[in-house]
């Protein structure tokens, strides 16, 4: 008598429980993501270069938050005021990069949506003000310009860029 052993396939680990997308689907997704997002170091590099960066930076936080610190040269326009004030402060021909506090806040996303609904080209700055400060870029407060040492968990210490 022959005995047949039934074995089940090993359970997929949490990463592969849902299989990765096809390369074509992944390329479309990541390409689209780059059309919607910019990172802090790319925004800082563009602003630091000579000449017009080709976009305006918009801080969508409250006045109290703005006073605590904001990106030099940013336009201050809290999300709730975008419908009534955007046209007085922004040119629809110039792309807008929105930011709020950081990765735990979706204020920049809400601001980007409000601007897109009004006809603006818009990107969201990933990391927000938190990562701007953590990467050691200068910021303005009601007391003047400040900088912090770069956090080695977010930015290279002895290099101009992370090489991403």
Description:
By secondary structure, the protein is of the alpha/beta class. It has helices at 23-36, 40-48, 63-68, 82-89, 107-117, 128-134; strands at residues 37-39, 56-59, 75-76, 96-99, 122-126, 139-141, 144-146. Strands 1-5-4-2-3 form a five-stranded parallel β-sheet. A two-stranded antiparallel sheet has the order 6-7. Strand 2, helix 3 (63-68) and strand 3 form a beta-alpha-beta unit. The longest helix has 14 residues, at 23-36. It is globular, with a radius of gyration of 21 Å. The relative contact order is 0.15. The model has no long low-confidence stretch (mean pLDDT 92).
Helicity level, as a percent range?
A: 25-40%
- How many DSSP helices? 6
Structural class: alpha/beta
| Strand order within the widest beta sheet | 1-5-4-2-3
Q: What's the total count of β strands?
A: 7
Cα separation of the termini: 62 Å
Overall morphology: globular
Evaluate the radius of gyration. Answer: 21 Å
> What proportion of the residues form beta strands (DSSP E)?
5-15%
Strand and helix order: HEHEHEHEHEHEE
The overall pLDDT, averaged over residues, is 92
Low-confidence runs of at least 5 consecutive residues: none
Largest sheet: 5 strands, parallel
From the structure above, extract its key features.
164 residues, alpha/beta, five-stranded parallel beta sheet, two-stranded antiparallel sheet, 6 helices, 34% helix
């Amino acid at each position: 008598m022959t005995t047949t052993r039934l074995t089940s396939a090993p359970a997929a680990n949490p990463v592969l429980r849902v299989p990765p997308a096809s390369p074509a689907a992944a390329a479309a997704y990541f390409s689209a993501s780059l059309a919607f997002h910019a990172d802090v170091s790319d925004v800082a590099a563009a602003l630091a270069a000579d000449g017009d960066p080709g976009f305006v930076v918009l801080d969508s936080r409250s006045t109290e938050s703005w006073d605590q610190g904001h990106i030099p040269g940013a336009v201050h326009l809290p999300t709730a005021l975008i419908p009534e004030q955007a046209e007085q402060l922004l040119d629809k021909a110039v792309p807008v990069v929105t930011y709020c506090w950081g990765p735990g806040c979706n204020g920049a996303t809400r601001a980007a949506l409000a601007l897109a609904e009004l006809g603006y080209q818009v990107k969201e700055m990933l990391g927000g003000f938190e990562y701007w400060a953590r990467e050691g870029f200068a910021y303005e407060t009601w007391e003047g310009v400040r900088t912090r040492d770069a956090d080695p968990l977010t930015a290279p210490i002895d290099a101009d860029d992370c090489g991403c």
